[in-house]
Amino acid sequence: MKRKRNIIVLSLLILLTAGLISFTVSKDVVDDQIISHTVDLNAQNLQLYWKDEHGETLNSIQNLKSFLARKNQTLIFAMNGGMYKQDYTPEGLFILNKETLSPLNTATGYGNFYLKPNGVFYITTDNIPVVCNTTDFKDNGEIKYATQSGPMLIIDGAIHSAFKEGSSNLNIRNGVGILPDNKVLFAMSKTEINFYDFARFFQKSGCKHALYLDGFVSRMYLPEKNWIQTDGRFGVLIGVTEKKNKGEIK
Fold first, then answer.
1. DSSP summary character for residue 84
2. Which terminus of the chain, N or C, has fewer Cβ atoms within 10 Å?
3. What angle, rounded to 10 degrees, do the helices at 195-205 and 2-32 form?
4. What is the pLDDT along the chain (250 residues), one digit of tens a residue?
5. Alpha-carbon gap, residue 60 to 200, rounded angstroms
6. Whose CA is closest to 50, among 85, 105, 92, 94?
7. Of residues 139, 210, 140, the one with CA closest to residue 174
8. Beta strand 99-102 with 94-96: parallel, antiparallel or unpaired?
9. How many CB atoms lie within 10 A of CB 240?
């Protein structure tokens, strides 16, 4: 009887250990799939970009780098900043330097953008970053930059209810979330990932709200992590440079 009890205890320990190993491997695999960058708006300058000084759509991160270089600015991080139409105009809301260049889109439709709730990522004139549901967005005239996309990834700390663990809907994905200390967390999957696992990354990082930006076309430029993607053709771009005392680039 004692020998049988020992065998049962040993078996349970083996199963428990296997479960822990499986969880750890799964966790590490998901984390290894994602490259991320945190931006402190008090120390760095985060802006949204669309067109250059000649009114031409920037399109690529390389063009954004060149545009900033002409203004003696060095790009330290960049990522595509939301969905766009065939002519590269923003899909949904786009605010640039307090000017609304594309209105808020509250329509119903097909595709990721219209998977409700969708949302808005914006920065106030006081450099406060926010991600909110589209239905909660209000322009009080103090919003410096804004881009709309969808779906929301994290809503009040919870993963979007439409996302299913273990889903086979895999794709490259990028998104943005707000950390508890008001820093901005940008992330992109290095390989194809489902919505649930991608959203879970933001949830584990502490984001109460996070927003999906785009899918397989996504690119990120982050030379400090040796991740350099400067190609692609986009609408809105997100760029980060070191903060200057003389004000922002116009």
1. B
2. N
3. 90
4. 555 554 444 444 444 444 444 444 344 556 789 999 999 999 999 999 999 999 999 999 999 999 999 999 999 999 999 999 999 999 999 999 999 999 999 999 999 999 999 999 999 999 999 999 999 999 999 999 999 999 999 999 999 999 999 999 999 999 999 999 999 999 999 999 999 999 999 999 999 999 999 999 999 999 999 999 999 999 999 999 987 654 444 4
5. 29
6. 94
7. 210
8. antiparallel
9. 22
Domain residue ranges of the chain, discontinuous segments joined by +: 1-32, 35-242
Q: How far apart are CA 151 and CA 134, in angstroms?
A: 10
What's the rounded Cα separation, in Å, for the pair 250 and 235? Answer: 18
3-state per-residue secondary structure call for 132-146: EEHHHCCCCCCEEEE
Widest distance between CA atoms in the chain: 85
